[in-house]
Write a structure and sequence with these properties.
single chain; 32% helix; disordered C terminus; 17 strands; 3 domains; 460 residues; Rossmann fold; six-stranded mixed β-sheet; 12 helices; GMP Synthetase, Chain A, domain 3; alpha/beta
Length: 460
């Protein structure tokens, strides 16, 4: 395990900017507004060949009546408990605050090494701003600018020297699972149910999660990375700049996942936005599982499940391959079964077919449904090969690749699904012009400059 460094402090002191500076990323959302970070955000850092994990936390304020203050304080306490080293960030421009003393008392009780950073010091001439903070009775104080980088390298030199040695970790490929959906469908509740702890802030207020949060967990001895994402609203309803960033990060979560758990609110019913989000996952080539959450709130009879699934299938025809299941994150109904589906989908998502097997499937498909004509010539499929996985991607060489109609393409994909047993994963099929030695030779001759025509010289 790598040592863990937790960044702590009151709201708007620059914790997320420092996190991004240390991890050399833009993983944490940054805005000139208190309370942007609510969950714990994890990132990997490397300094002087020393790897460590950095944790960004929400602003800690005691006695704040804000709806999210209580859950955020719990997140901060959990980060302190998990960390090896604590970094307290103070605001040089905002000055000393009573909330700084509350934070200081909390960290002293933890009994762990603490580094005190005074942020927003942009140069040597501003280091006089540190004097006020000596009233806290702590030393040394490190002047830094998370935004511009002033003092950060010197601080990191001292930090890595104080870190415990990292235990070697086995190289394990982990399945990355993104939990996506519109706001308030129960995404964070589902992850908390899976983890068995309040890992993420859960609230009935739409838009609670603003970052894409990664959490490593083991289920049946298999490691997974869970990516919680912000709720994706319709474009017309995304007004705030901060929320636009959240939607972008949610889509980035889809870009880097293997399997997307698309969470829908069964109690409210299937909406157009649910299908739009499913389309985002499909366009990015993710494996997909459709989860009808809040099933405990639905009035049911023996045919209710069938009706819901049929409605979902009719609305999302492009995701006919995706398994669908009813669950309740609140009660835990069928939540353990999600990982059985994840394993099945991921196994197909990473499948590689032999060229011989693939071409036998193609041969049977072409015999059963002869390719159409194009400008008086029959389309000819010469051979097909697999060129990638995640999802399985195939290239088929054709005499007129641009003339293959989408309906015939869909037919071939369905034949590959049936013949190879790939009924729970997206497939990609690309058509290309066949090339070969003779064709390449003719093309190269055509590109060569031709000799000038002129009178032949008479011999003798």
């Amino acid at each position: 395990m790598k040592p863990i460094v937790a960044i702590l402090g009151r709201p708007n002191v620059g914790k997320s900017s420092l996190f991004n500076r240390i991890t050399r990323s833009k993983s944490a959302l940054v805005a000139n507004t208190p309370g942007v970070t609510r969950d714990r955000i994890y990132g990997e850092a490397l300094w002087e060949e020393t790897p460590f994990t950095v944790v960004d936390t929400g602003g800690f304020v005691e006695g704040d009546p804000d709806h999210f203050s209580g859950p955020i304080r719990q997140q901060v306490r959990q980060a302190i408990h998990d960390a090896d080293v604590l970094v307290m960030v103070l605001d040089a421009k905002g000055g000393l605050s009573p909330y700084d003393r509350d934070m200081l008392a909390l960290m002293r009780d933890a009994g762990k090494p603490v580094f005190y950073l005074v942020n927003k010091v942009d140069g040597l001439e501003q280091e006089a701003l540190l004097y006020e903070f000596y009233g806290l009775g702590v030393a040394p104080l490190y002047p830094v600018s998370a935004e511009h980088g002033y003092g950060v390298p010197d601080f990191l030199d001292v930090l890595v020297a104080a870190l415990p040695a990292a235990a070697p970790e086995p190289a394990v490929e982990m399945v990355r699972i993104a939990v996506v959906g519109r706001p308030n469908v129960g995404k964070s509740s589902l992850i908390n149910r899976i983890l068995g702890q309040e890992r993420l802030v859960v609230s009935e207020v739409p838009g609670t999660t603003r970052d894409a949060v990664d959490t490593v967990c083991k289920v049946n001895a298999t490691p997974y990375v869970l990516i919680d994402t912000a709720g994706i609203r319709r474009k017309g309803r995304v007004d705030e700049k901060l929320e636009k960033f959240s939607v972008i990060k949610a889509l980035q979560g889809l870009e880097r996942c293997d399997v997307a758990l698309i969470v829908l609110d069964a109690h409210e019913g299937i909406t157009e936005q649910d299908i739009t989000i499913a389309g985002y996952a499909h366009d990015r080539g993710c494996g997909c599982i459709l989860l009808l959450n809040k099933w405990d709130l639905v009035e049911k009879d023996s045919l209710t499940t069938r009706r819901y699934v049929e409605e979902l299938r009719a609305a999302s025809r492009f995701l006919q391959f995706a398994p669908a299941m009813t669950i309740s994150a609140k009660t835990g109904l069928r939540v353990p079964r999600i990982f059985e589906l994840v394993e099945a989908v991921y196994a197909q998502y990473t499948t590689r077919l032999g060229t011989g097997q693939l071409n036998r499937i193609m041969e049977r498909a072409l015999q059963a449904n002869e390719p159409p004509m194009h400008r008086g010539h029959r389309l000819k499929f010469y051979y097909t090969t697999q060129v990638g996985t995640k999802p399985p991607t195939f290239v088929s060489f054709v005499n007129y690749p641009d003339a293959v109609h989408f309906s015939y393409k869909r037919y071939i994909i369905n034949q590959i699904r049936e013949g190879a047993g790939l009924d729970q994963t997206p497939l990609r099929l690309i058509f290309r012009q066949r090339s070969g030695p003779l064709k390449d030779f003719v093309a190269s001759r055509a590109r060569r400059p031709q000799p000038r025509k002129g009178r032949a010289k008479r011999k003798g």
